[in-house]
Amino acid sequence: MKELKCPKCGNVFKVDEADYAFIVSQVRNAEFDREVERRLDELSSRHKVEQELAAQQAEQGFKSELGKKDKLLSDKDAEIMRLKSERDAEIARLRGEKDSEIARLKSQLEGVEAKRDADISLAIAEKDKTIAQLNSTIEQGDSRMRLALMEERDKMKQSIEAKNAEIARLKADAELEKAKAQVHEAELMKQHESEMRAKQELVDYYKDMKTRLSTKMVGETLEIHCSTQFNQMLRPVMPNAYFEKDNDASDGTKGDFIFRDTEDGIEYISIMFEMKNEMDTTPTKHKNEDFFKKLDEDRKKKNCEFAVLVSLLEPDSELYNGGIVDVSYRYDKMYVIRPQFFLPIITLLVQTSKKSLEYKKQLIQAQSREVDVTNFENKLMDFKAKFGRHYELASHKFKSAIDNIDATIKKLQKVREDLVSSENNLRLANQDADDLTIRKLTYKNPTMKHKFDEARDGVKP
């Protein structure tokens, strides 16, 4: 790019090479035209002057000079004509160049405009293509969204239908369970009534038995009844269980029966039984709680987990007649039952204890692991003690070795300083030896100087 400054306003503007060449050509043509006009004016003025001179000479009669002037004028005219033809040829050439340049610039401009139009058309086409792709993508996204919404709506509809079906099924199951419960309740009522009749018959039986037996026989009869019940009903399903009379009175007291059972060599249940009964005609009536303390002491002495009092005392008590009575609030793990609950309480406690058997096994394993951990900790502590003792000895030896090294370093440092000092002394001695000359030795010593001079003279040939 070229910069041009306007001579009138002083503004500076930029033009490209083509415009600059065109402006230069215009300026050059104008200058050429002005130069031609100026030269023509000069020739015309000179021609007038020469004509006037020729007229004067003609008047004076210089005919020969007139002929020369005419020849000169004709030469000038020829020169003028030649210059005019050259000017016209130059003007024509410049105009041709200008026209060709204008044509070239026009063709370039047309090419640039065509390229710009093509670029614009291509850009518009690309934009249209992009817009079409975006519209297609938006339409596809809308279609996918609508499809997803429809699928989600169908899923929700199916889920609602499934939930409704599940609710209906649960209602039907609830109705069925309700009907079953009603049937079971009726069966339980019948069973309860039959059990109540059996209990009443049993009570009547024991009352009748009491009237026919003595006090000792009444007690022994209850023990025999319980033993018979166990051997008939539970012995087949618990062949390894221990159920025997407690005959060990070494501690001054004993219970009636002890029940124990094991699994995998682990005792998981033990029960101390006490059977109490008395005749209706006995003048002094006992209560069940009169035997709680002795039963708890027997349980602890014989190392049993549970204590059960099988009692026919207090026959009119609604508490004891209602079923299994838990008196753990008085004595730990103690129950009071009527004879008809003898087998149920054994099975109940067995099932409950079996559930804790796995925990007992885990406890034994944990205790074994705890012993292993304790042994491991003891070994670790022993190792730490030995290691600490050895470390302390090694640390002491190491410190002693460090102290010895420090002392040796100090000694070596002193030896080094002595050697350095000796080296300095040797260097000074060497300097003194180098500085020692005959001149210095004989300085202010005329006797030695004379001796050395004689020695030199004697050495010379």
Q: Count the DSSP helices.
A: 8
Question: How widely separated are the two ends?
Answer: 101 Å
> What's the average pLDDT?
76
Q: Order the strands across the largest sheet as they lie in space.
A: 3-4-5-6-8-7
How would the global form be characterised?
elongated
Q: Name the helix and strand elements from N-terminus to C-terminus, one letter apiece.
A: EEHHHEEEHEHEEHHH
Low-confidence stretches: 211-219
Please count the beta strands (DSSP E, at least 2 residues each): 8
Class from secondary-structure proportions:
alpha/beta
Oligomer: single chain
Main sheet record: 6 strands, mixed
The proportion of residues in beta strands is 5-15%
CA-based gyration radius: 72 Å
The helix fraction, in percent, is: over 70%
Describe this structure in words.
- The protein is of the alpha/beta class and 461 residues long.
- It is 74% helix and 9% strand.
- A 6-stranded mixed sheet has the order 3-4-5-6-8-7. Strands 1-2 form a two-stranded antiparallel ribbon.
- The longest helix has 150 residues, at 63-212.
- It is elongated, with a radius of gyration of 72 Å.
- The model is unreliable at 211-219 (pLDDT under 50).
Topology:
Layout (H helix, E strand, L loop, with lengths): L1 E4 L6 E4 L1 H44 L2 H150 L2 H20 L7 E4 L11 E7 L2 E11 L15 H10 L4 E6 L6 H4 L3 E2 L7 E4 L4 H94 L2 H5 L3 H14 L2
Parallel strand pairs: 5-6, 6-8
Antiparallel strand pairs: 1-2, 3-4, 4-5, 7-8
